[in-house]
Write a structure and sequence with these properties.
This protein is α/β, with parallel strands linked by helices. The chain folds into 3 domains: 119 residues, 3-Layer(aba) Sandwich (Rossmann fold); 129 residues, Beta-Lactamase, CATH 3.30.450; 151 residues, Reverse transcriptase/Diguanylate cyclase domain (Alpha-Beta Plaits), CATH 3.30.70.270. The chain is 39% helix and 22% strand. The strands form 3 sheets. A 6-stranded antiparallel beta sheet has the order 8-7-6-11-10-9. A 5-stranded parallel beta sheet has the order 2-1-3-4-5, with helices on both faces. A hairpin with a 7-residue loop joins strand 7 and strand 8. The longest helix has 40 residues.
Length: 454
């Protein structure tokens, strides 16, 4: 029954009409829609309404009493009587209605009463949500103060939004005018795949959100529940719209409220200010690099890795987070050095280091670890996510046209992974021994060559 922008429908208060349709005042649905309500007929399914409007002829109608409450919150219930019976509203109130009116019904008064009863019914829940949101904001501000790199503020943003609003997924995507590809710089959630690029041609809604600077709602075509949706929330900044937030709702959560979207927008705008300090052409994995760098590969040095790992360990321990440490070994580098010389071997190291820095997400960190090894720190990444990220990176490395090497001399890669929390890890340095042992197990394999510290 409701028309208009789907983003507007998402945040409108939902009123379900029940009872006798013939008892409805003329123009009822039109008045409700103009008053900002989303109107629907009772169907016994779908998302829970904010209010139920019952229309009856007589106070002795058996539909006067509400059905037994289901689990969860009950909507506001307002009863309208088509007959001018002054005793009917009292009977409805005695039966458990929040409000009741008898004919003649003044429709603007009815809409005002609906708004009032919904606010009264939602007040305790909204107060609780406000406390939860305020706590999430305080955690975000506290964490932002404890980190110096802008990309970590973005990562904290998507994590706090996903938790505060119980989202299935939350991603921050950088967009640029005239480009068909967006860059995912932070993502958390159940279906996160670890990729760092998004084909914008497949998501015209993102362009609409950037152009109009208004939220856009689209169905989640990959979800089992057709009512699940993806909300595209533009992130305006001083110099345009640098990106969008993609909020994916859960199966049992078909919408976000207006206050929730407004709060998400406030946090996103604050995060965008930090994002503007990152150069637009910065490859993933470089914005968070700490000096000193490795002179050959441009990745972090061992000293930088040690500092970053200790910092990530303390952050994960403080906020009960997960993160992974990966060792990637270039298997054939020694043979390349022996057969083609150190110039070819160094070129392979440079190309691998460049590709790693380009393929990793913005919050990730890569460093040179040994003669033929690279270490990667993956914040907010469990063991499964680390394996997916490693598989993606190794696929890209395998497709590289390495200079100075023939097809038979192309390097292979062995990998070790350790994820915190781990029962054997009580301090950051414990992770080095575990990941080195995992790498040795990977080297001993045939095929995948990925060892995981268990």
């Amino acid at each position: 029954m409701s028309n208009g922008n789907p983003a507007e429908a998402l945040t409108r208060l939902r009123v379900v009409l029940v009872g006798d349709a013939a008892a409805r005042p003329e123009g009822l649905e039109r008045a409700l829609t103009r008053a900002g309500f989303q109107v629907a007929e009772a169907s016994g399914s779908g998302e829970p309404p904010d209010a139920v409007l019952v229309t009856l002829f007589r106070a002795d109608d058996e539909r006067l009493r509400p059905p037994p409450p289901a689990d969860g919150e009950t909507p506001a219930r307002l009863v309208l009587f088509a007959a001018a019976d002054p005793d009917a509203p009292a009977a409805a109130l005695d039966a458990g209605a929040d409000d009741a009116l008898a004919a003649p019904v003044h429709l603007p008064e009815l809409c005002a009463r609906l708004h009032l009863r919904i606010r009264e019914r939602q007040a305790p829940r909204l107060t609780l949500k406000e406390r939860e949101v305020r706590a999430a904001l305080q955690e975000l501000v506290s964490e932002a103060r404890s980190v110096l790199r802008p990309h970590e503020v973005i990562l904290a943003l998507v994590r706090r939004l996903a938790r505060a609003f119980d989202l299935a997924d939350c991603s921050f995507v950088i967009t640029a005018p005239g480009r068909d590809e967006g860059r995912i710089i932070a993502d958390v959630g159940e279906r996160r795949e670890g990729h760092d690029r998004l084909d914008l041609t497949s998501y015209p809604e993102i362009a609409d959100a950037v152009r109009t600077r208004r939220p856009v709602v689209m169905p989640d075509e990959q979800a089992a529940d057709a009512d699940q949706s993806i909300i595209v929330l533009p992130v305006p900044a001083e110099h345009g719209v640098p990106g969008v937030l993609l909020l994916r709702t859960r199966q049992a959560q078909h919408r976000l409220s207006g206050p929730q979207l407004e709060f998400a927008g406030v946090l996103a705008r604050a995060a965008a200010e930090a994002l503007e300090t990152i150069p637009a052409d910065t490859p993933n994995g470089e914005a968070g690099q700490l000096l000193p760098l490795d002179g050959l590969t441009g990745c972090g040095s061992v000293a930088a890795l040690d500092s970053r790992l200790h910092e990530e360990f303390e952050r994960a321990r403080r906020y009960a987070l997960s993160f992974s440490l990966v060792l990637l070994d270039i298997d054939a580098l020694g043979a390349i050095n022996d057969e083609l010389g150190s110039v070819a071997g160094n070129r392979v190291l440079q190309e691998v280091g460049t590709r790693l820095r380009r393929e990793l997400r913005l919050p990730d960190f890569v460093s040179r670890y040994g003669d033929d090894e690279f270490a990667i720190v993956l914040p907010e990444t469990g063991s499964t996510g680390a394996r997916r990220s490693v598989a993606r990176v190794r696929e890209r490395l395998a497709a590289m046209p390495f200079e100075f090497t023939a097809p038979a001399e192309r390097p292979g890669f062995s990998i070790g992974i350790v994820t915190y929390p781990h029962p054997a890890v009580t301090q950051a340095d414990d992770m080095f021994a575990l990941v080195e042992a995992a790498l040795m197990r990977g080297k001993a394999q045939v095929g995948e060559r990925v060892g995981v510290a268990e």
